[in-house]
Amino acid sequence: MALKFPIFMDSQSTTPADPRVVEAMIPYFTEKFGHPASRNHSFGWEAETAVDRAREQIAKVIGARDPKEVIFTSGGTESINLAVKGVAEMYREKGNHIVTTAIEQRASLDVCKRLERHGYEVTYIPVRPDGLVDLETLRQAITDKTILISIMLANNEIGTIQDIAAIGRLAKEKGIILHADATQAVGKIPVDVEAMGIDLLSCTAHLMYGPKGVGALYVRRKGPRVRIAPMIDGGGHERGMRSGTLPVPLIVGFGRAAEIAKAEMAAEGERLGKLRDRLQDMILSSVEEAFLNGRPDRRLPHNLNISFAYVEGESVLMGLNKETALSSGSACTSSTLEPSYVIAALGASAELAHSEVEHVGARTIEVVKRLRDMSPLYELAKEGVDLKSIRWKAE
Ligand SMILES: Cc1ncc(COP(=O)(O)O)c(C=O)c1O
Prior knowledge:
This protein is an alpha/beta fold.
C-alpha cells in the first residue's frame, strides 16, 4: 500500500476524530438538537439522556464511581483552570499554598503564576532526570498551609507516567486535595481515580480521538467530598460548577471516544508500543549521540522523545516537515509517534503503519546525519575538543 504524505506523528498535540465518533455526533447537530436543561419536552429529555450516557462513558474510562462526578468543560485547559482556581478560592480560609511540578503543561503553570499574583504561594518541585516526581521532595514541599497538590499524570513531551497512586496516598495521609492533569493519559493507559486516590482529574476529548472543544473535570463526591468555586457563573448548569449550555454533539462524541478507548486501549497500546519501539531502535542504533528522554519503562506507549547532540531540533524537523508531522519540545528535539487507530479503522493495514514508521525512521536518520556533516560543533567534538571549554564570545 502506498504511503500517504504527510505522515502524522504528532498525536500528543491532538488526534483526529474517530469516524465512529463523528457518526455518533451528527444527529445531535440536526434532528436531536434539544437543550439538555429543557425539562418540559422530549427534545430536552432526549438531549439530557445523551449527555447522561456520555457522563457514564467518561466515568467508566476514569474509574469514577458516580457519573455525577463528571463536569463538562471546553477542554483540558478549562478543566485545569476550574480545578486549581476553584480549590484555591474555595479553601482560601484553610490555606494558600499549592504544590505542583516544574514540568506541568502551560495551563497549570500559568494558573499557578496568576494565583501567586493574588497572594497564593506555589512550590514548583523539580523532577528527577527521568521526569518522575521524587516522593520525598514532594513530602518536604508540603506545609500546614498546603491545600492542593496538582501534578500531571503523563507528560505531554516525554510521556513519563507518574506514580500517581503513591502521590495519592501521600495526599490522603496529609489531608490534601490531589488534582491530576490526566489530559495525555485518559484513553491511552488505564486510569482509575479510586485506585489512584485522585480527587480532581482533568481530561480532554481531542487527545483521545474525540472532537476539539470539549473536556471534563472529575470532582470527587465522597471520601472526601471536594468542593470547588465556579469560574463561570450563570444558569447553574453542571451542578453550579460550570454554567453555560452544554455542547451536546461534542459531549456525545467525547462519550463515544471514551467508550471506544476503554474497549480498545489495551490492544492499541500494545500495537503502538511495538511501532514506537521499532522507530526508537532504528534511530538509536543508527545515529550516534542520540539520547532517549524520559523513562523507558514508564511512558505512554505512543511516545518517543529523542535528543540529537550537535544539531538543532528545529533543523531536524525542518528537514522532515514536508512529509512528516513531528514536534519539538522547548530544549530538545521531541517526536511523538502514533499511527492512529482511526487510520487503521479506515482500512489501512498493519503494514502501512509499519511502512510509515520505517519511512520516518529512515528519513530522520538521513536528516540528522546530513546536519551533522554540516555541524562545526560535531566536527570539534569528533576531534576531541571539550565543547564546554570553548569561550564563544569575547567577554
Ligand atoms: C498535559 C496537557 N494538559 C492540558 C492540555 C490542554 O488541553 P486542551 O487542549 O483540551 O485545552 C494539554 C493539551 O495538549 C496537555 O497536553
